[in-house]
Structure formats: structure tokens, C-alpha cells
Specification:
This protein has one domain (7-223): Rossmann fold (3-Layer(aba) Sandwich), CATH 3.40.50. 45% of the residues lie in helices and 12% in strands. Helix 4 crosses helix 6 (137-150), helix 4 (70-81) packs across helix 11 (213-224) and helix 6 (137-150) crosses helix 11. Strands 3-5-7 form a 3-stranded mixed beta sheet. The protein has a two-stranded parallel sheet with strand order 1-9. It has a two-stranded parallel sheet with strand order 2-6. The protein starts with 6 loop residues before the first strand and ends in a 6-residue tail after the last helix. The protein contains 11 helices and 9 strands. GO terms for molecular function: aldehyde dehydrogenase (NAD+) activity. One of its GO terms (cellular component) is cytoplasm. InterPro entries: NAD(P)-bd_dom_sf (IPR036291), NAD(P)-dependent_oxidoreduct (IPR051783). This is NAD(P)-binding protein.
């Protein structure tokens, strides 16, 4: 389903109310506690789905990873399955951000910390979401499906419904419940703090998430050694 709530990183009360069991929040709370205890001023950057091809010395040297998790993992699963699939109709939405726009937040934040951090939120007020729009998982899965058809791995672009057995088979340790909770959950947020306090103005738009599917699928089928159209 598509959740109606869209989180803002300026809503400190809502973030305070999150349980420690929320994804990665137990670690967030330890970081915030370090700020409250006076060990350091802390800042937590929280991106949505990061997409795009990064560049730079660390990537060229093979030190930094060039791929993210969501769409490449789904492309791998769907290529092995022979068709794209969804759970819950794929109605959930993921906030997304291009890797270069995401890096710009880190650059702006670090620069301002070095220059004059007095006006920056930190600790409980130091969450910095990064996003520039969102896509439903259905649209993301269909884009992968269209790419699979284009390379000859699938005959249907339209995602069908993944069974519980398929989730266990293809997602391994993530299994049926965890596949739902991770990939087919809602990740909806607004990066209000970075826009307001850092002057962040992301340049890349959600349509690029969908057009990136072909390159992701090409990489997946090559890695799997699958035969594609000549």
C-alpha cells in the first residue's frame, strides 16, 4: 500500500517517537546519545534509494562500491526468475536521490561544519534526509521488466506477484517477511533540513531512476552469464 505519512527531518518529535527496532535506528540513537553526552556534535545523513553511477579516484581504484542495493538486487532476482515481480501490487514508494546529489549534501554539510556550525542542527536535530522525489516500486520493477524483455531474458514486462516460496528462494535470508518489510515497504520523506540549512538543490529527478534500469539489467545478466539477444 502507499503510506499517507511522509516524514520530514525537521519533525524532531516524530523522529524521537521511532522505536529502536526501526531500521538502523538503534545505531542512530547511539550516535545521538553521544551528542547529548557531550562527546561530539553529531550529524546523520539518511538517504533514500541512492541511484546513478559514481565517479572519482576511490571508484576508479576499486576501493568504493559503485552499486547500491535495491534495483541491482531486484534485477538479479528477476533475471534469474525470468520475469519482474512485485508484492502488494508494488504500491509502496521509495524516496530516491542521485549519488552525486547525495554526495553534495555531505560536501555542503562538512563545509559548513568546518566554517561555522553554530547554526546547524545536530544530535536530535541533526538528521539530514536526502531525496528528490520518489517512485513506486511497481514502476521500478516494471522498468526492470522492460529492460529484461529488451535483452531477451523475459517475454513479459508487466510484473506479476511473487509467491512466498519465490521470496524464500530468490531473496535467501531475507525471506518472505523480510522481503516485504525491506523492499516492499514505504520509504517516504522530505529532505527539508538540507534544503533549508545547506542550500541544497538536487539536480537529478526520479525519471532517471527508471531510465537507469537498462544499465542495471545489463550488468546483472552479464554477471549471471545469461544468454541475451545478439
Amino acid at each position: 500500500y502507499l503510506a499517507s505519512n511522509i516524514w520530514s527531518d525537521l519533525d524532531v518529535a516524530a523522529l524521537d517517537a521511532l522505536p529502536p527496532t526501526a531500521p538502523h535506528h538503534a545505531a542512530d540513537l547511539l550516535v545521538v546519545q553521544g551528542d547529548e553526552d557531550g562527546y561530539a556534535r553529531t550529524y546523520i545523513v539518511v538517504p533514500g534509494y541512492v541511484y546513478g553511477t559514481p565517479s572519482g579516484p576511490l571508484y576508479d581504484a576499486g576501493i568504493a562500491k559503485k552499486t547500491t542495493l535495491l534495483m541491482p538486487w531486484l534485477a538479479d532476482v528477476f533475471a534469474r526468475r525470468g520475469r519482474a515481480g512485485v508484492l502488494g501490487g508494488g504500491k509502496n514508494a521509495w524516496a530516491n536521490v542521485h549519488v552525486l546529489d547525495n554526495a553534495d549534501v555531505y560536501y555542503r554539510l562538512f563545509s559548513k561544519i568546518l566554517d561555522d556550525p553554530s547554526g546547524l542542527g545536530h544530535g536530535r536535530e541533526g538528521y539530514y534526509f536526502t531525496e528528490n522525489g520518489e517512485c513506486t516500486l511497481y514502476d521500478m520493477c516494471k522498468a526492470i521488466g522492460e529492460a529484461l524483455v529488451a535483452v531477451g531474458i523475459a517475454t513479459e514486462a508487466e510484473p506479476d506477484t511473487l509467491s512466498a516460496e519465490e521470496c524464500d528462494k530468490y531473496f535467501g535470508k531475507f525471506g518472505d517477511f523480510e522481503a516485504v518489510s525491506l523492499f516492499f515497504a514505504n520509504v517516504r520523506c522530505h529532505a527539508d533540513r538540507a534544503r533549508r540549512d545547506l542550500g541544497w538543490a538536487p539536480r537529478h529527478t526520479p525519471d532517471e531512476v527508471l531510465t537507469s534500469a537498462r544499465g542495471i539489467v545489463d550488468a546483472a545478466v552479464e554477471k549471471l552469464g545469461l544468454k541475451t539477444k545478439a
